[in-house]
Amino acid sequence: MTTSDHLSISGAELGSLWMGYQNKTMNMRFLEYYIEKAENPEAKDILESYYNKESEHVETLKKIFQEEGAVLPVGFTEKDVTPGAPRLYDEMFDTMHLRLIAAINMGLFTVHLSMAYRDDIRELYQRFTADAQEAYDQTTGFLLKHSAIPRPPYVTMPKDVEFAKSKQYMSGFNLLSHKRPLNSVEIAHLYQPIEANTIGMTLMTGFAQTAQNKDAANIFFDGKELAKRIVTKLSDVLRQSDIHTPSMWAGTVTDSTNAPFSDKLMMYQTSVFSSFGLTSNAVGSAFSLRSDLPLKMAKIVQDIFTFSKNSGQVMIKNGWMEEPPQAQDRRKLSKGQTNK
User: Fold this and answer.
1) N or C, fewer C-beta in 10 Å, the chain?
2) Which domain holds residue 204?
3) How far apart are CA 310 and CA 317, in angstroms?
4) Contact predicate 95/47, CB 8 Å
5) Do residue 221 and residue 110 come from a single domain?
6) What's 290's DSSP letter?
7) In this predicted model, what pLDDT tens digit does every residue of 84-129 receive, in sequence order?
């Protein structure tokens, strides 16, 4: 009997493998630049460790595409990074960026694992996820040790188990009634996008400062302003419950205007972070029981979606958006429809 290892990959598996190739070749380009500029030996070891694993995974993906007779995606190459370009961010930011990349990869490849049926593909995604988890753990430990990131807000430890006693628990719209304090689940889903968008502001500032294409530069500037609004809006929600928002330091941008990364690479990274923002805010909305919170998060999702759409249009205009493999257009293949 034929084993699943020898079955052709499904359309779902092909799509997720294609996304994995785009993701990992992108990550390698950023890591190449950060490794070149790294001064802290421990940070450099973390960056090099993840780079080496990503490089190995890219070779595995190439082999799968070749064995399946599928064209190799373009992804991102050495042409998308400029060796020797001046430092664009301060030393700690490289580790912050990798931490955010690892956080996204933990979620992305867990989803891809749920789409995989062939034994070797499932095993591959397990390795992808394990490597991302290790990188996230290493970067978090390093940044905490150097006081480069704060811990989320603290709350008083509960002494008793309580159950909601009225519909007021979910109330948030009535201006004349008292809003209950945020619960710890809601705090978690508010703080995560505050942290991510604080880092995003620094990233977008550097991108806007070095972009060669005017439309791309405008997208990066808009992204910085959007991230700033999200941080302000969600921090205000925490403060309304008398929860102190820890001061976030997300690194600094130098005065260099020499681009270390191609506009295509920076635009794709922006697209990935936008997708992450859409997902995290949607999950936060689903787990928020106070009725005003899903509405606030829905408005944020709408703003991110508009920004993401504008980004996609710029990528298409400049020939930067590589199309994923797609199903055949049977209408075009049908007799008499080829010219319609």
Assistant:
1) N
2) 178-317
3) 11
4) yes
5) no
6) S
7) 999 999 989 999 999 999 999 999 999 999 999 999 999 999 999 9
